[in-house]
Amino acid sequence: MAATMLQSAGFVLALLGVGAVIAATGMNNWSSQDRQGDVVTSTYTYKGLWQTCEVGTSGFTECRPFYTILGLPGSFQAVRALMIVGIVLGAIGILISVCALKCLKMGSMEDGVKANMTLTAGVMSIIAGICAIAGASVYANQIVSSFMMTTYNSEYGGMGGMGGMGGIGGMGGTLVPRYTFGPALFVAWVGGAVLLVAGVLMCLAFKGLAPEKSRYNAVAYKAPSQNRPVYDDSHSGAGHRDNQKYV
Hints:
Shape: elongated
Helix content: 55-70%
Strand content: 5-15%
CATH topology of the domain at 2-27 and 73-159 and 173-211: Butyryl-CoA Dehydrogenase, subunit A, domain 3
Radius of gyration: 37 Å
């Protein structure tokens, strides 16, 4: 009973985890423009894995997809690949776990086969969760590196208030926009963690679903006894006496 509950809970969590990873992969706000200290901004930019969007002062949003692959950094393409692999593995794990559910009867499938399928689905869910967490972490590392390396004019906004705005035109200063974590990153992290928990529950359910090995009593093997020649005591005694006569 406990194994069935673990299996069902793992299946439900795997569904939620894959749904969260799919949603995070399709979201456009993986990185959002950092507006801390900005008084007036004409546009607000946020980026995703497939397109970048800009929101104007009128509230109109314009999104432009990434038309090229060769022009994108290798780490960015790795994030895409990790998220796609996580989705594919998670979906395949769900399909396998559906066929392995204890409450479903599929032909003459034995309990041992269902147990092995549950273990396979659990391992695939764990790998899918690791891929999603790794992809989000690589993207977050890029945001942190870009945030620390971007030059920021502290006179604009901040403590300088409106006086700093005159310094941009007069001193020729420029402000490069910096980006911070978007909501999609947290959705991807949560989805990957849920997939990890689902995989662990399925692996724990495997032990309870696996049938016990049949025990055979050991049987001692005895070799058949060889036929030995039987000698008659009377003949042997007579021969012995005859031998004594000739001595």
